[in-house]
Amino acid sequence: MKIQYLGHSCFLIDINGTSILVDPFITGNSLASHIDISTLKVDFILVTHAHQDHVLDVEVIAERTKAVVVSNYEIAMYYGAKDLNVFALNHGGTFVSENFSAKYVNAIHTSSFADGTYGGEPGGFVISSKEKNVYIAGDTAVTMDMKLIPMSVKLDVVILPIGDTFTMGVDDAIIASNLVECNKVIGCHYNTFPPIEIDVNEAKAKFNSKNKELVLLEIGENLSV
Q1: What residues of the chain score a pLDDT lower than 70?
Q2: What is the reported pTM?
Q3: How many beta carbons lie within 10 A of that of residue 114, not counting itself?
């Protein structure tokens, strides 16, 4: 499994040649201006919730690539009405393809499109392949529901928001890593805008003090798991 960071909360995950794009917010992120969305190979687009900083580039990428948009019922219906390929889930449901599965799990946040359309209840995804498993929390506070995840799957890495203000911050992300029983954390949803700016050195030091690894990828950088 190869995980590429495309800025904010956007990741491109390759699993045995299958490309999964998560929460595409690229063209609106000045920090990701060197990423050309017209060159991205995408088979599936996973959307955790409907906020603009997670869905801005869904339509243009899905139209070009014919990727299947996988999300909650309300988001899937929103994009289905635009003639995009969609697959609707609700919490606890799992999308299964040839090379991976994606289970939609609870998140504590809000969800609405920029035009005011209700975006359903937010969620995260547990993505599993034959070799590796990753939990993408989406925008969320720390929640005791996270304890359910390691009861059914052993995680190799977890992707958590760490920017505070609109999601959990660093201290709560450490608690979340305990709940999901995974000490390797990729941080996201930080430093894109002033309200979520953090001291990255302090964040890494806090994780290190708990014998955990906080991975903060540069935009465009890859991590093999």
Answers
A1: none
A2: 0.97
A3: 11
